[in-house]
Amino acid sequence: MILTSSGVEVEHDRRRELKAFDDSKSGVKGLVDAGITKIPPMFVYPSTFRVPLVDLDGINDSATLRAKIIDQVREACENWGFFQAVNHGIPASVLEEMIDGIRGFHEQDTQVKKEFYKRDFKEKVSYFSNFDLCQATVATWKDCLSWAMAPSPPDPTELPAVCRYGCTLFELLSEALGLDVNRLKDMECAEMIFHAELTLGARRHTDSGFLTVLLQDQVGGLQVLHQNQWIDASPMPGALVINVGDSLQVITNDRFKSIEHSVLVNRVSPWQLYSPIKDLVTQENPPKYKEATLHAHVAYLRGKRV
């Protein structure tokens, strides 16, 4: 039979691949044992179900290119709540050293780490297991290393260029909302608390802060809930995963979505009265949240998802 339609050819190849896999009776373990080096197409989600990728290369070189990148960020935050960013200006060696440093801390002797173990979170640096250990119905299999950046973090202008990535992100998010480029930075959204944690089997959750910047090692493990399906955010060399937190959803009046996800790997993530930004509220789009503390907003959002 001669196939003239490329769409028919693709469907035919998929049926043949599915039949061959089923006839082997060896499952995915059989594929691994056979030494495959690439995941077969039948297991790969279509592009509409992959976490969006945003290339930041040349973002300050061209107004046209910057506008295109802002559109990509807007679409990702409104529809996914997640995106992966590449060409962000942070050298690969710095990212590798960050992973090595976090892993090195957690792999130290227990007696060494005990000096930092805290439960009151009043210290600038603290090590703990499950921040909600006594409140959660089920404990999460994870340890965390936390260091405070508020209320007196360093001025961004005092930081090396490679450390200003968070400021760039908030500029892009502000412009994606149609606001002044410095609007979110001026609200001190970035000056919260940052965590670095070794996570194994973290239950599904949303992040309570404004923005999370996640550095994955090549083991991966992050899954994002999109259209009622769990989608793998496969690790990409040099990429950083960005996700919207509950607080950013509040001040954008639900324009940007804080999405449920589960984490299985190392994480680096950022965490005053808050309400939707006035410029984003109109008669047609009234405020969906009253002015309240961050904790109150987070409790409300999480209560809706129960």
Keywords for this entry:
single chain; 306 residues; alpha+beta; Jelly Rolls; 2 domains; four-stranded mixed beta sheet; 9 helices; 31% helix; 16% strand; globular; DIOX_N; Oxoglu/Fe-dep_dioxygenase_dom
Plain-language structure description:
With 306 residues, the protein is α+β, with helices and mostly antiparallel strands. The protein folds into 2 domains: 1-44, no CATH class; 45-305, B-lactam Antibiotic, Isopenicillin N Synthase, Chain (Jelly Rolls, Sandwich), CATH 2.60.120. 31% of the residues lie in helices and 16% in strands. It contains 9 helices and 11 strands. The chain has helices at 6-24, 27-33, 63-79, 92-106, 110-113, 165-176, 183-186, 246-251, 294-305, and strands at residues 53-55, 82-86, 125-128, 142-148, 193-199, 211-214, 223-226, 229-232, 240-244, 261-262, 267-270. The strands form 3 sheets. It has a 4-stranded mixed β-sheet with strand order 1-2-9-6. Strands 3-4-5-11 form a 4-stranded antiparallel β-sheet, with helices on one face. β7 and β8 (229-232) form a beta hairpin. α3 (63-79) crosses α6 (165-176). The longest helix has 19 residues, at 6-24. The relative contact order is 0.12. Residues 1-9, 192-200 and 265-271 have low confidence and may be disordered.
Task: Describe how the helices and strands are arranged.
Elements: H1 6-24, H2 27-33, E1 53-55, H3 63-79, E2 82-86, H4 92-106, H5 110-113, E3 125-128, E4 142-148, H6 165-176, H7 183-186, E5 193-199, E6 211-214, E7 223-226, E8 229-232, E9 240-244, H8 246-251, E10 261-262, E11 267-270, H9 294-305
